[in-house]
Please model this.
Amino acid sequence: MPSKSSGVAFVRETQLPELPPPTFETGPIKWMRQNLFKGVTSTFLTVASVYAIYLALSMVLPWVLNGIWNANSIRECRVILDGAAGGCFSVLTERWNQLLFGVTYPADQYWRPALAFVLMFPALAPVLFSHLPRKLLISTVLYPFAAFWLIWGGTIIAPLIALAGFIAAYLVYRRLVSASFAAGSLGGLCTAVIVWWLGGYITEAAASVIALEPVPSRNMGGFMLNMILGVVCVSLSFPLGIVLALGRQSSMPIIKWICVMFIEFIRGVPLITLLFVANVVLAYFLPPGSNFDLILRVIIMITLFASAYIAEVIRGGLAALPRGQYEAADSVGLDYSQAMRLIILPQALKISIPGIVNIAVSLFKDTTLVSVISMFDLVGMIRGPILASTDWNGVYWELWLFASLLFFTVCYGISQYSQWLERQLATDHR
Model:
């Protein structure tokens, strides 16, 4: 823009540089103004929250920082503290093995459940993260048999025969899917059965020399027992819940009402009642002298309990899909199984992720209820052998804080994974 200054006309050829924003509209100050001190109410709540945090830390931090980690009993802790505020964390260093593995699990065999726990992560990775190579699913298939052998011990015959049986069932399924049920399918069935039988027969001699010290189920305890129940029951209840949800929406009245009655009955009964049934009542329906493993009975009951709730969550996801998705599957000529597998279920499961994760977290925490039927899980160990001993009778906060941290770590990890999965699948944009 031409102008005159001291009688000389000029035109600006360059743009003036942008001025920095005001200090109160950028950086941490802006964030604090928008989130902590936006108004009178927000400012009051922020100050009150900071004061509450200060009071909590002023009580907890001295107790934690002055904690004793090298005493042999609660009496020694009190002598060392001499009236000062401090926790007696020596119970954790003294009884960590009982808290994690129980009382009667052999101490020289702790490496076995620890190895099974470490192997769980590469086994779950290809299932939880779809971008990994599909060949890694082999580790997922082999892990249940390897973990069973590591934890319970004995010869490797039983896991190998069970694995051969699953391979045979898979071969039969592939034959039935790829061809009609004719001579070819019958031949595939016979081949699979022969492979299973020969596999078990051949591996019996070779595997008899590969054996670990057997550990009965009654020796399982501590947080290891919670992990076993949580992982197994969540893994089994998810596919069973899908079957129940599809059965409840089936057009066949008998299947529909069986699923409805099962779901409503299980949802109307407390889990602790089902655990008492597994512990006491179920034995009356077994033949005399039979020994049905207690952990297996508990796994069955918890799985049935969780599957009923998962079925309702998935049914909600199926109901949330517009009718046009079903009509689209029919228009391209897909049958029921193809439509469910390729179009309906993937979308319904995306919608159901928050509900399924909520049930998984609740189920893992509910595994502590097995302590009421005399199973020494983490809570059972704290309430039973540890607090019953004269050395540590009176130590409560330290033990329950340790248990809370363990459960919080697992549940928080599950929650964070579900949020990441929702962002990856973009469940809000269907």
Summary: Residues 179-190, 192-207 have pLDDT under 50 and may be disordered. Residues 152 and 215 are 5 Å apart (CA to CA). The first strand starts at residue 3 and ends at 5. The beta strands are 3-5, 8-10, 154-155, 211-212.
